[in-house]
Each structure stands twice: as structure tokens, then as C-alpha cells.
Specification:
The complex is a heterodimer.
Chain A (H helix, E strand, L loop, with lengths): L1 E8 L3 H12 L1 H6 L2 E9 L4 E3 L6 H11 L9 H7 L4 E4 L11 H10 L3 E4 L2 H17 L4 E2 L11 H7 L5 E7 L2 H13 L3 H11 L7 H4 L2 H15 L9 E2 L7 H9 L2 E10 L6 E9 L10 E8 L4 E7 L3 H18 L2
Parallel strand pairs in A: 1-2, 1-4, 4-5, 5-6, 8-10
Antiparallel strand pairs in A: 2-3, 7-9, 7-11, 9-10, 11-12
Helix pairs in contact in A: 1-13, 4-5, 5-6, 6-11, 8-9
Chain B lengths: L28 E10 L5 H11 L3 E7 L10 E9 L4 H10 L3 E10 L1 E9 L6 H9 L4 E9 L7 E9 L2 H17 L3 E5 L10
Antiparallel strand pairs in B: 1-3, 1-4, 2-3, 5-7, 5-8, 6-7
Classes of the chains: A alpha/beta, B alpha+beta.
Bound molecules: NADP nicotinamide-adenine-dinucleotide phosphate (NAP).
The site of NADP nicotinamide-adenine-dinucleotide phosphate has 25 residues of chain A, from helix 1.
Chain lengths: 336, 201
């Protein structure tokens, strides 16, 4: 049995999703010879630490009841620096202005020789190369499948399953909120404002939807793809971004008359002047990119395998935890 | 409803969404297949092919059917050529004048087409001028425009179909559209690139 000690930094939807996943998958993990022991969990209030393994069920319960995980005044940064463990699961909120607090957490984890698995796009969209350099310098793993497309495997698909292929271009729907809004507008002929309100009620859109509907979230994910799969060195500011706020039901009808739907498509192409862009595009109704609801989808154009398409849930507590768990397991298998 | 004072032909464009197609030579590349009967005499073929080069046709193949002589002893010949200037009738007239018998003519229009959607204050933004700019390239043409206006002062939406001789010219037409859209604050929604997974083109 291989024991890996983890900390979970941030205990919101995704953090709790991971705790639940670890509880549900205990038997599977044991049979795979893995003992994933959570030695600390922290949120914005403080942390709970137990070197023998935090009681995850009790932790989830306590967070629900009191709104805080803290059983001590030890803060996240101290956990990362001072608690002995191998792997930091960094799942604090995304911040695309300066990447904090995630950026400092990840860099500190690397400096203390700890692997990092994250779903937090902010630091990667702003400081990708700095993060990778620091991880490399300290000979630790850095994995972030959950940052792009939630449950949909795309980074690992391109890098592991399609290893040997040259990825020529990637295009896809990388934001479930926008896809939900456009799909509903198409189906019901409703206005953007109307459907946005509906999405907010259902919890598919935030109270301040800017980050999603202006294409910022999709752009951040594209940056991560561009840097990690195409070896580019771009940041969020290099992406040409157009959101969906100007789309009208009439435009969707006109597109429908031509057998097309309108989707917010992110695309990145390899090459010297490698294009990287998020914008609404016309997609033929039968095209594999024309998925509905909150689904995400990505089409990878490769030299040997031709086009390969994946689709799946781009968000959700358990869905995101699935991508994080797969990264944790991959690190366990690749480290000694 | 559409701004027509910049010379946009009303019969081609209307605001109701009805599509009208017009034909402008130069926008289309045409593949023509012609069955001719040539007398079995030296110099006949050269004479038959002369009008083709005179009118700028690009000859793709010439097939002699020596084994299928007509009862009058003429030799059937099939010529296939590409034409981008619409001068087919001139070619036919000149061939007939030279005494070449034309048995039949088949033609196929070849062109690239793209549909784009525009959103914004299209009607106030002098669409006629935009269309003129594309049409005046001589190699690309707006063949259909449908505008949908929900209410006064609200942004309208339009779908625009552009045809061009080839992808390069289509690209130039799109560049014009993008530049105008930027100036006039219109949102242009273009199709994704075609690939092997496109079921429908
Ligand atoms: N939800 C999804 O479906 C999804 C999918 C893909 C990626 N992501 C990404 O995953 C990350 C987490 O998402 P989430 O939905 O779990 O967010 P969330 O529910 O808002 O949870 C964020 C957690 O981070 C904690 N936190 C905030 N500031 C902190 C600080 N300075 N130090 C330590 N902890 C801090 C919060 O503490 P309190 O509880 O004390 O406020 C909370 O527990 C985000 O970066 C998000 O973009 C989410």
C-alpha cells in the first residue's frame, strides 16, 4: 500500500466534492494499492489538521453546519509550508486579476517539495510558465486537468492517450453557462436577458455573470490549453475575446434557417502566428460541436488520429472532483 | 427598409428574408463540358480550340473518339474547360461560325459560399455601402441578405450569404466585412472551419 498525504486548500463545492469522492472511492483506491490520507483541510477561516487523517465525513458536516472548517487558527499558507505532506489540492476561488490566493499557495507548495493538483484557472491563465518552472525546479508534479472542461478529459487526452500525435488545433465549447443560455435561447426563442435570469435562478449562472458571458472563463481555459498542449507562452491578455451578450433570438432563428446554431467557441491553433480566440460562431446542427444544455465539448485536430472529439460535463462538484482524483492517482503512479 | 441610396438593387435584397439570386460573371468559375463533331481533316482540332483560348477558357481535357465516327464520318470530341468570365455564349457563337458542330453543352457552376450573421444597428449603418464594397471586388458577391428587426432602436440581426470564385477571394470579402463591422460596431458571427467531422457543409 502506497500512502500519499494530501491537503485540501479551499473547501467549497469542489473541495467538498473531493472529500466525498475520497469517501466513496475508498474501496477502489485500496484495491489500487493507494492510501490517500487527507492530513489538512483549510478554508478562508482557518484549517483543521490531523496527521492520522482528517475525518472527512465530520469535516463536511462541520462545514455545512458552521460555515467553517477551522478547528485551529492555522491558516492555509502555514498548512502548505509547515504540515508534512506530499500533495496539495488547491481549490480556492479563481481570480484573474492577480491569481491570488492560489498563485502564492501553488508556488509555496512547489518550494516545499509538494505536488499540486488544482481546478483553479486564475494562476495558470496568468503565470503558467512561472508555475511550471517552479514545479520543475523542485522536481514535483503539477496537474490541472480540472481547470479545463471539468469532468471532460482534455489535457490528459492530448498528452497521454494521444501521445505521439501532433495536435494541430483545438476548438470547443468551454463554458457551460454560455452553452446553456444559447441553447435555451435557440430552443425557446427567448431573449438573452430572460434566459440569463432563468440560468441565475437555476444556479447555472452567477449573480455577476460577467466572467462567464463575456467569454473570460473560456479564454482562461484556452490559455491553459495553448500553453500546456501547444507549448505557447500566452496569458489571458493575448486572447481575442467576444462574449454572448449581444446575441439576439432573431440571429439564432436566421442561423437555424441555414441549418446552423450559434455557439461560443474557443479555438487555438498551433503555428507561428498561432491564433487564440473566443467568439460566437456558426456551427452546423449535425456537427459534433453542436452539443446542447450545459455540456462542454472539444474537438482536437491531430496529425495521425485525425479529428477526435470529447464531450462531457464542464462543471459540478463531483464532476470536477473526478478530474482532480484522476490527476492525484496519476501522480501517485508516477512518483516514488 | 434597407438603405438603398448607395445603389443596392432592391429586387435582390429585401428585409423580409426572401432570398434572390443574381448571376454575375466573374463570381463563378464554371466547368463546361462540350461534345463537338469535327470533320476528319487536318487542322480541325486546332481551329475548334481557338475560340476557347480567345475567350480565356482554361482547357482541362480533350478526348477524341476515333472509334465512334458518325455516319457522316465526323469524329466526336469531348472538351472540358474552366471559364471564369461567363463568356460561354461568345465561345459557342464563334465555334458555330467556324463550322464546328456542337452536339451538346453541359455546365456546372463552381464557387465558394459562406453564410455569416450580423448583429447590431445594421439598418442605420449603411449596409448598402458594405455590400457595394464586397461586390466591387469583382470576385465576390453578396447573393442574399435577410434582415430581422425586432423593434425600432433595438439591434437587428441579419444573415448574409457571400459567394466568391475561390477561398482566397472569399477570405478577402470576409476581411472587408470584418473591417466594416469593426467601424460600425456590428458583431460578425462566422462559421467554424470545415473539417472531416462536418456532416453538413
Ligand atoms: N464548481 C465547479 O464546478 C468548478 C469547476 C471547475 C473548476 N472550478 C474551480 O475550482 C475552484 C473552486 O471552486 P468552488 O466551486 O469549490 O468554489 P467555492 O465553492 O467558492 O469554494 C472556494 C473555497 O475557497 C475558500 N477560500 C477563499 N479564499 C480563501 C483563502 N484566501 N484561503 C483559503 N481558502 C480560501 C473558500 O472559503 P470559505 O468557505 O471560507 O468561503 C471556499 O471554501 C475555483 O477556482 C473554480 O473556478 C470549479
Amino acid at each position: 500500500m502506497k500512502t500519499i498525504r494530501l491537503s485540501i486548500i479551499g473547501f467549497g463545492a469542489v473541495g467538498q466534492g473531493i472529500a466525498n469522492a475520497l469517501l466513496q472511492k475508498q474501496e477502489y483506491l485500496e484495491s489500487a494499492g493507494l492510501n490517500l490520507k487527507v492530513v489538512a483541510i483549510s478554508d478562508s477561516h482557518g484549517a483543521c489538521i490531523d496527521l492520522d487523517g482528517v475525518d472527512l465525513e465530520a469535516a463536511i458536516e462541520r462545514k455545512k453546519e458552521s460555515g467553517s472548517i477551522a478547528t485551529s487558527g492555522v491558516m492555509s499558507l502555514e498548512v502548505i509550508r509547515d504540515v508534512d505532506h506530499e500533495l496539495v489540492v488547491e481549490v480556492t476561488p479563481t481570480n484573474i486579476d492577480n491569481g491570488e490566493p492560489g498563485l502564492t499557495y501553488m508556488l509555496e507548495a512547489f518550494r516545499h517539495g509538494r505536488h499540486v493538483v488544482t481546478s483553479n484557472k486564475g494562476p495558470l491563465a496568468l503565470k503558467y510558465s512561472q508555475l511550471c518552472d517552479e514545479a520543475k525546479k523542485n522536481a514535483v508534479h503539477f496537474r490541472y486537468e480540472a481547470t479545463v472542461g471539468g469532468a471532460m478529459p482534455i489535457l490528459n487526452l492530448a498528452q497521454d492517450a494521444l501521445a505521439g500525435n501532433k495536435i494541430i488545433a483545438i476548438e470547443g465549447i468551454l463554458n457551460g453557462t454560455c452553452n446553456y443560455i444559447l441553447s435555451r435561447m435557440t430552443e425557446e426563442g427567448l431573449s438573452y436577458q430572460h434566459v440569463l435570469g432563468e440560468a441565475q435562478e437555476l444556479g447555472y449562472a452567477e449573480t455577476d455573470p460577467t466572467y462567464d458571458v463575456e467569454g473570460i472563463d473560456a479564454a482562461c481555459k484556452l490559455v491553459i490549453l495553448a500553453n500546456s498542449i501547444f507549448g505557447m507562452d500566452v496569458t489571458y491578455n493575448n486572447v481575442e475575446v467576444t462574449g454572448i451578450t449581444r446575441i439576439t433570438p432573431e440571429a439564432l432563428t436566421l442561423a437555424g434557417d441555414e441549418g446552423m446554431v450559434i455557439k461560443l467557441i474557443g479555438e487555438v491553433k498551433d503555428g507561428e502566428n498561432g491564433e487564440i480566440m473566443v467568439s460566437p460562431k456558426l456551427v452546423p446542427e449535425q456537427h459534433p460541436l453542436a452539443v446542447g444544455g450545459t455540456l462542454n465539448v472539444a474537438l482536437l485536430k491531430t496529425d495521425m488520429a485525425g479529428p477526435v472529439c470529447v464531450t462531457g460535463k464542464g462543471a459540478g462538484s463531483m464532476e470536477t472532483a473526478s478530474a482532480i482524483l484522476s490527476d492525484i492517482i496519476a501522480i501517485c503512479k508516477n512518483s516514488h | 427598409m434597407l438603405n438603398t441610396d448607395k445603389g443596392v438593387n432592391k429586387s435582390n435584397f429585401n428585409a423580409t428574408g426572401i432570398k434572390c439570386l443574381k448571376y454575375i460573371p466573374g463570381i463563378y468559375s464554371m466547368i463546361v463540358s462540350m461534345d463537338l463533331e469535327l470533320k476528319d481533316r487536318p487542322g480541325q482540332l486546332v481551329q475548334a480550340l481557338k475560340p476557347l483560348s480567345t475567350f480565356g477558357a482554361n482547357i482541362m481535357s480533350v478526348l477524341h473518339h476515333h472509334d465512334q465516327r458518325t455516319p457522316r464520318g465526323a469524329i466526336p470530341v469531348q472538351v472540358v474547360f474552366q471559364l471564369t468570365n461567363g463568356k460561354l455564349n461568345d465561345i459557342i457563337a464563334e465555334l458555330e461560325e467556324g463550322g464546328v458542330r456542337i452536339v451538346c453543352v453541359g455546365k456546372k457552376l463552381m464557387y465558394e459560399e459562406v453564410t455569416v450573421i450580423l448583429i447590431g444597428h445594421i439598418v442605420h449603418s449603411d449596409m448598402g455601402d458594405t455590400i457595394d464594397q464586397i461586390d466591387s471586388t469583382g470576385f465576390a458577391e453578396v447573393v442574399s441578405l435577410s434582415i430581422s428587426m425586432p423593434a425600432i432602436n433595438e439591434p437587428s440581426s441579419a444573415s448574409l450569404v457571400i459567394n466568391a470564385v475561390d477561398m482566397a477571394q472569399l477570405g478577402k470579402a470576409l476581411d472587408i466585412l470584418r473591417r466594416v463591422a469593426l467601424e460600425k460596431d456590428l458583431l460578425v458571427i462566422e462559421p467554424i472551419e470545415k473539417d472531416q467531422l462536418s456532416v453538413k457543409t
